[in-house]
Write a structure and sequence with these properties.
By secondary structure, the protein is an alpha+beta fold. The strands form five sheets. Strands 9, 10, 14, 15, 16, 17, 18, 21, 23 and 24 form a ten-stranded mixed sheet that branches. Helix 2 packs antiparallel against helix 3.
Length: 517
């Protein structure tokens, strides 16, 4: 019995001695940062000296904002990681560090929200300034339309400017606060201190790598400027990135990788549920009538390899915690095929767009600033997930091309020996090329479509246009010589019950027949 108690006492003394032993402190250097759209992954490296058997190391200098579940530690051959835990013995600084870290996290989230508001207001202002002209077809009610537009411009533009000023002031205040919080949040203490238990087979110096994830709202955002020459055949893509150090640690010559991915989301595969049919509109989340399914997207062209979602910044980055910096990522010259687009039903302008190949691998944001012939013409939407091998870039409108739309016929009559009423509508489009060279123009218009068997649409004349019967879209592809013009005529008739009112519906605008724009 005495031998048993002696062994127990010896074990307790060894345990207390091991617990009281101070773990050597290791401050691995921050060497790399990968910025995603919703957070940052940091990588630290160091050389640690291990003895044979168990070793206890205290890792300091890590981000106070790290996600504990994301911590990953790698050691060289001959070393085995046993456990990773918070340093409970060094708990005094926790309250100060954790409070500063929490405040810094809230500050970063608020900065991202304010920046999103600023971007939205700037886009609204750009949209208003780019739509100061009335579309063709509104001349009949021009006074009311002009009055509405003038009132909107007079009231909304000053309001946007005032809101922008307020949010920019708020953003500057938040940035100052972040600069004050960062040193406190990054101070050495239990909030950014981990204890690692390691078993080594022999005494040696082992490489140590620590990786972890720091959540944050938009640590970086791409910014793209597209510059087109006068012919529209050469486009320069200049990509920049607005980088924000939301890690809670200062960066000193850190390798930075930018990624257009979200991480930390659920990765479970989706489940394909039964595809059910219902009568009389029962059920929810459907696709409409079984004979009128609408196919979203396009399968034209050949599928292209996905654009690279990672970009390695060429030079190491030095940036204070909470700071921001704009980096020039790349500049690429690409050949383009210019094409003019006219939609006279919606606009009196003819738009120039360039179809670009070889764009794969660029960091494409959702929108880009466009400069044509050295002048800013506005912003354009981009879709890098297209299946086509060309990317369409809008370059603004061209005053050297003139387009008009006129109604030639508009009359209605009763259908003999029937309870139907018939409406005849005929339109004429005119396109004039004032350029000194030949141009290629794509002209779009449309005829109405019916989802009711009692309302029948019959297309009468489309002047050689391509007709998409599902949508009613008409497409003409024209090549106009210098100074040449061309007329295009199309017409249709609509038969409907004479005792009912029929409307042509497009988006939120409803126009009673037989009058239409």
């Amino acid at each position: 019995m005495s031998k048993y108690y002696s062994l127990l006492l010896a074990s307790m003394l060894l345990a207390l001695r091991g617990r009281a032993q101070t773990a050597p402190t290791v401050r691995p250097a921050l060497v790399a940062a990968t910025l995603y759209l919703n957070g940052t992954t940091l990588e630290h490296q160091a050389q640690v000296t291990l003895t044979a058997g168990q070793n206890r190391l205290a890792l300091e200098g890590l981000s106070p904002l790290l996600d504990p579940e994301s911590v990953e530690i790698e050691l060289g051959p001959g070393a085995e990681l046993l456990s990773v835990s918070n340093d409970e013995e060094n708990a005094n600084p926790v309250a100060l560090n954790q409070a500063a870290a929490d405040s810094l996290g809230r500050n970063m989230s608020e900065q991202a929200r304010v920046e999103a508001d600023i971007k939205g207001l700037e886009q609204e202002r750009t949209f208003l300034l780019a739509n100061q002209t009335l579309p063709t077809g509104t001349q009949a009610n021009w006074s009311a339309e002009v009055q509405k537009g003038a009132t909107l411009m007079r009231t909304r533009l000053p309001a946007i400017q005032q809101e922008l000023g307020q949010r920019q002031a708020t953003l500057a205040r938040l940035q100052r606060q972040a600069g004050q919080l960062s040193p406190r949040a990054a101070a050495t203490g239990a909030a950014n201190r981990l204890v690692v238990q390691v078993r080594a087979t022999r005494p040696f110096s082992a490489p140590l790598t620590v990786r972890y994830y720091v959540p944050g709202a938009q640590p970086w955002s791409p910014d793209l400027a597209i510059r087109a020459n006068g012919s529209g055949r050469e486009l320069k893509f200049v990509t920049r990135g607005q980088v924000r150090n939301q890690s809670g640690l200062p960066w000193a010559r850190v390798r930075v990788v930018l990624s257009r991915q979200d991480i930390g989301r659920r990765v479970a595969r989706p489940v394909l549920e039964p595809w059910e049919l219902h009568r009389d509109g029962q059920g929810s989340g459907g696709e409409g009538r079984v004979d009128k399914f609408v196919v979203k997207g396009t399968a034209k062209g050949r599928p292209m390899e996905a654009a690279s979602s990672r970009y390695e910044v060429a030079e190491p980055v030095t940036l204070a915690a909470g700071g921001r910096r704009e980096l020039t990522l790349s500049s690429v010259d690409l050949a383009a095929r210019p094409e003019y687009l006219a939609i006279p039903r919606l606009s009196e302008h003819v738009f120039l767009q360039a179809k670009v190949t070889g764009w794969q691998g660029l960091q494409l944001p959702d929108a880009a600033k466009v400069y044509y012939r050295g002048a800013y013409v506005g912003s354009t939407q981009l879709d890098g997930r297209a299946f086509n091998d060309s990317l369409e870039v809008a370059l603004g409108h061209d005053e050297q091309l003139v387009v008009s739309r006129a109604k030639l016929e508009d009359f209605s009559e009763n259908v003999a020996l029937s309870d139907k009423r018939r409406v005849h509508l005929t339109y004429e489009l005119n396109v004039l090329n004032n350029h000194p060279t030949a141009v290629r123009v794509r002209v779009l218009d449309e005829v109405p479509i019916s989802a009711d068997k009692e309302i029948v649409v019959k297309v009468l004349d489309i002047s050689g246009a391509q007709l998409d019967e599902r949508t009613g879209k008409l497409t003409w592809l024209l090549t106009l010589a210098p100074g040449a013009s061309q007329r295009l005529k199309f017409g249709f008739q609509v038969d409907y019950p004479k005792d009912e009112n029929v409307e042509i519906i497009r988006r939120r605008t409803r126009i009673s027949a037989p009058k239409t724009r």
